[in-house]
Amino acid sequence: MLALVQRVAQARVEVGQRVVGAIGRGMLVFVCAEPSDSDAVAQKLVGKLLKLRIFSDEAGKMNRSVVDVQGGLLIVSQFTLAADVSGGNRPSFTGAAEAQRGRALYEMVLQAARAQHPAVAAGEFAADMQVHLINDGPVTIPLRLQA
């Protein structure tokens, strides 16, 4: 499973003119399921997100997690994280799970996150979304989790 984590001061996702998910301080997480991913990998991703220490402590060191700072999670599906441009200039997305499996794994990530963290918002799977964010730092961390 691929993820791109951004520490944010705030973030929101709109579909059309409607806000479908928003958080204040926390993490905006773009998620892409790969064909070999399992429910266990989705669970592993959530565990990693909740423990990832990317928030500053009193000394200014990245030593706190989203749980420690009581921040929000905004989780957005983004199959384009699997883009492959090695064969030319037009990206191939064959590295992403097919849509039905991708949706199921995205929903698994959301379900696991909501079961373990009180502030979880989401984008809308397969929608044309506009993502607005204020990246804090900036801090942007790519993740790849496998079974």
Can you describe this structure?
β4 and β5 (62-64) form a beta hairpin. The chain has helices at residues 39-51, 99-116; strands at 2-15, 18-23, 26-32, 55-56, 62-64, 72-77, 120-122, 129-144. Strands 1, 2, 3, 6, 7 and 8 form a 6-stranded mixed beta sheet that branches. It contains 2 helices and 8 strands. α1 crosses α2. Helix content is 21%, strand content 39%. The termini are close together. It has one domain (2-144): 3-Layer(bba) Sandwich (D-tyrosyl-trna(Tyr) Deacylase, Chain: A), CATH 3.50.80. The protein has 147 residues and is α/β, with parallel strands linked by helices.
Give the count of helical stretches: 2
Strand percent estimate: 35-45%
What order do the helices and strands follow? EEEHEEEHEE
Radius of gyration: 15 Å
Tally of strands: 8
Largest sheet: 6 strands, mixed
What is the element layout, followed by pairings?
Blueprint: E1 2-15, E2 18-23, E3 26-32, H1 39-51, E4 55-56, E5 62-64, E6 72-77, H2 99-116, E7 120-122, E8 129-144
Parallel strand pairs: 3-6, 6-7
Antiparallel strand pairs: 1-2, 1-3, 1-8, 4-5
Helix pairs in contact: 1-2
Considering the chains and any ligands shown, give keywords for the structure.
147 residues; alpha/beta; D-tyrosyl-trna(Tyr) Deacylase, Chain: A; six-stranded mixed sheet; 8 strands; 21% helix; globular
